[in-house]
Amino acid sequence: IYNVFIVAILVSVLIQFIGNIQKDDFITHNHLNTALDQLREAQERLVVQAKMASLGTIAAGVAHEIRNPLTLTLSGLDDLQESFQTIEASTPVNNLSTKDKQELETEMARSRQLIALIERGSERISGIVSGLNNLVDTGVNASPHDCALSESVQNVLTILSPTIESKSAHVVIDIPPESRVLINNKELSEILMQLTLNALQALGTEGSMFITAKGEPQVQRVEIRDTGRGIAESIRDQIFDPFFTTHEAGGGTGLGLSIAHTMAIKAGGQLYLGESTRSGTQFILELPTSSDSE
Prior knowledge:
Elements: H1 2-20, H2 29-90, H3 98-135, E1 145-148, H4 149-159, H5 161-166, E2 169-174, E3 180-183, H6 185-203, E4 207-216, E5 219-226, H7 256-266, E6 270-277, E7 280-288
Parallel strand pairs: 2-4
Antiparallel strand pairs: 1-3, 4-5, 5-7, 6-7
Helix pairs in contact: 1-2, 2-3, 3-4, 4-6, 6-7
């Protein structure tokens, strides 16, 4: 993180240096302006990367702190279920009046529902923690390695489940279980996160999102399609540009698709915009196929 900030500072110094030599006869004014724009863009990208790295560290810490009490909760839940089953089996219902029996059965049913509710909530928290760990996992496996595509998609959808629910979005997934790609797991999660968020933002308050995958020779082709407002033809060539956004001020940094595009190319793949009409948008992600899925 600190190394990125140091580089950002060096870029800032370089920007000032070029500004001081703008009158140099050997360098044209247009070339200097272009160089300055590129350096400012690089500086802002480095700062954003440093912030993202810091956010990853915080997320990993939060996941760790949640995991400990969650483990105790799940352990206690197992004991509670066993105790409830023992009580339920040993209660002498035959000796009770019809009214008391009905009241007991009502309370037993309510208790079973509450236990099931706690279990579902705990499992959901566990899934979110697992998804966070996978998303921020930098570990020793920083180089490309074998990744299960369906598992990565499920992790991202688990993290984004509150957004999906708030938009009443209908999500359809069609990914063969054997689909695997060769990429760093953190980068795969980040690419999928940005594409999925982009699709959800396009939906507004309702709509559908389709995530499909198809294996081709030496490449996995992933399509993420939404039924949102679409992307105007006039801005197709700009959507992967850093800091370009169609959102209102404060609604987005304009870096999501740019980062996803850069990561896909870095992994030896490609990310491009497919069909985009008023009835929706399609993004296509192509990544090298892992040998395990060939």
